[in-house]
Design brief:
Length: about 210
């Protein structure tokens, strides 16, 4: 092969890569959205089932002595809420967003921490009086280009919180108390914070 022919082959390969890479990446991101959406729907269902067995109150509204996670979630501990619902969740794999770099714990019996969880807990969603309350969702937020750190965080309706680029390309999934899981952009996220009716939304971020 001549040098010219080698150059032509390299150019053709580069053109094919440019044409084929975006659809491949799009399918990859689409798959992660779908899996994340399904995870959050299962989590929402687990909340419902658990609450149905506990006077229609979520773990965040019940003391630990009575089987809930009230004292822990207000410290930013996400793990305790999901451990309480381990029977309803069945596997810790659904607590990991596929677009996240974290890894799932092998089982609920194995050592776990907030680092094995992708999704936040809506601290004040203790019941289902307001179906538009935000009960769970992707935990990758930032304000002013700075990632919001794990722990108990309060977001006012006017706070400039946006999705970071670490998952879902500046979008994210949130789980509402009514069981729906909308995909939101950053402006949409502000709208959902406003729809909760709370001046301040408290989230426990893993």
């Amino acid at each position: 092969m001549t040098l010219f022919e080698v150059g032509v082959i390299i150019a053709v390969v580069m053109v094919l890569a440019v044409l084929l890479l975006p659809p491949i990446m799009s399918r990859k991101h689409g798959a992660s959205y779908i899996t994340c959406d399904n995870n959050l729907k299962q989590i929402g269902l687990a909340y419902r089932i658990w609450a149905g067995d506990n006077g229609d109150v979520n773990p965040m509204g019940i003391l630990m002595a009575n089987g809930g996670s009230m004292e822990m979630v207000v410290t930013g501990n996400v793990l305790q809420t999901f451990l309480v619902m381990s029977n309803e969740l069945s596997t810790p794999r659904i607590l990991i967003c596929p677009a996240d770099t974290r890894t799932a714990a092998f089982s609920f019996a194995s050592p776990m921490g907030n680092s094995n969880i992708s999704y936040f807990v809506g601290v004040d969603v203790t019941n289902y009086m307001n179906p538009q309350m935000i009960i769970s969702g992707d935990g990758n937020f930032e304000i002013g280009g700075v990632a919001v750190m794990p722990g108990l965080r309060e977001f006012g309706t006017n706070d400039p919180v946006v999705w970071s680029a670490t998952r879902h390309v500046k979008c994210g999934n949130i789980g509402l108390a009514d069981g729906s899981v909308p995909v939101t952009t950053s402006p949409g996220l502000h709208d959902y914070f406003q729809q909760t009716g709370l001046a301040t939304n408290r989230l426990a971020l893993p």
